[in-house]
C-alpha cells in the first residue's frame, strides 16, 4: 500500500533556506496510526506532527535529488510549457529507504521523481512492488505536468488540489497500486483526460 503522495520543491527558492523544501500538496492514504504512533494527542497536535513527518520525507528526497543531480553532472535545463513530456523524460528518479522511526514507526520506501524544481514522491510500504509503484508515479507525474501546467510561471498547484485528488482517486484508489492491462489502461487514460479537460 502507498502511505502518501507528495508534491514539493527540490531546488532552493529565494524565500526558503538552503535545506528547506516547500510542500505544495500532500495526500495520506489509509489509517495514519503507522505515521502517528503517539496516542493521546489532540487533533491539532496530530495535524502538526503529521505535517512535520511529511516535511522530513520531503527534506530527505530533496537531498537525494541534489546528490543525484550533482553526481550526474548534467546541467538543469528549464523547459517551457508544452514540453512537459521532455521534462519528464529527463527527470531524475530514485528510491530513498526510510528507516523505522525516521519518520514513520516502520520502515518505508520513498520513490521520487525530480522534474526541474518539483519533486513527486510516493511513500510505500516495504513489501510493495517498486516497479509498479514507479510506473504509477511516472503516470501521476505526467498527468500533473500535462493537465495542471505545473512547469509554467505562476502555476496554481495549491488552487488545483481537487484535480490532483480526483487524479489520485482514479490512478491510486485508497492508496492501492493497480495492475493495469492495456485496454483498462487506455480506458482509465480517457477517463482522466476527460475529467481534467473540464
From TrEMBL:
Superkingdom of origin organism: Eukaryota
Lineage: Eukaryota, Metazoa, Chordata, Craniata, Vertebrata
Organism of origin: Dicentrarchus labrax
InterPro entries: AP-5_subunit_s1
GO CC annotations on file: AP-type membrane coat adaptor complex; cytosol; late endosome; lysosome
GO biological process, one term: endosomal transport
Protein name, UniProt field: Adaptor related protein complex 5 subunit sigma 1
Pfam families linked: AP-5_subunit_s1
Gene: ap5s1
Amino acid at each position: 500500500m502507498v502511505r502518501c503522495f507528495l508534491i514539493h520543491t527540490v531546488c532552493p527558492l529565494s524565500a526558503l533556506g538552503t535545506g528547506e523544501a516547500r510542500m505544495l500538496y500532500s495526500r495520506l492514504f489509509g489509517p495514519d496510526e503507522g505515521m502517528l504512533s503517539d496516542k493521546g494527542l489532540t487533533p491539532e497536535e496530530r495535524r502538526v506532527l503529521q505535517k512535520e513527518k511529511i516535511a522530513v520525507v520531503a527534506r530527505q528526497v530533496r537531498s537525494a535529488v541534489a546528490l543525484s543531480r550533482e553526481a550526474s553532472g548534467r546541467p538543469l535545463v528549464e523547459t517551457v510549457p508544452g514540453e512537459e513530456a521532455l521534462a519528464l523524460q529527463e527527470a531524475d528518479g530514485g528510491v530513498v529507504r526510510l528507516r523505522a522511526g525516521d519518520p514513520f514507526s516502520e520502515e518505508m520506501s520513498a520513490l521520487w521523481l525530480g522534474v526541474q524544481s518539483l519533486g513527486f514522491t510516493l511513500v510505500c510500504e516495504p513489501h510493495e512492488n517498486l516497479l509498479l509503484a514507479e510506473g504509477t508515479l511516472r503516470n501521476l507525474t505526467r498527468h500533473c505536468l500535462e493537465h495542471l501546467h505545473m512547469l509554467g510561471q505562476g502555476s496554481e498547484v495549491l488552487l488545483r488540489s481537487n484535480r490532483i485528488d480526483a487524479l489520485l482517486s482514479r490512478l491510486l484508489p485508497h492508496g492501492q497500486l493497480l495492475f493495469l492491462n492495456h485496454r483498462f489502461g487506455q480506458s482509465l487514460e480517457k477517463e482522466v483526460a476527460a475529467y481534467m479537460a473540464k
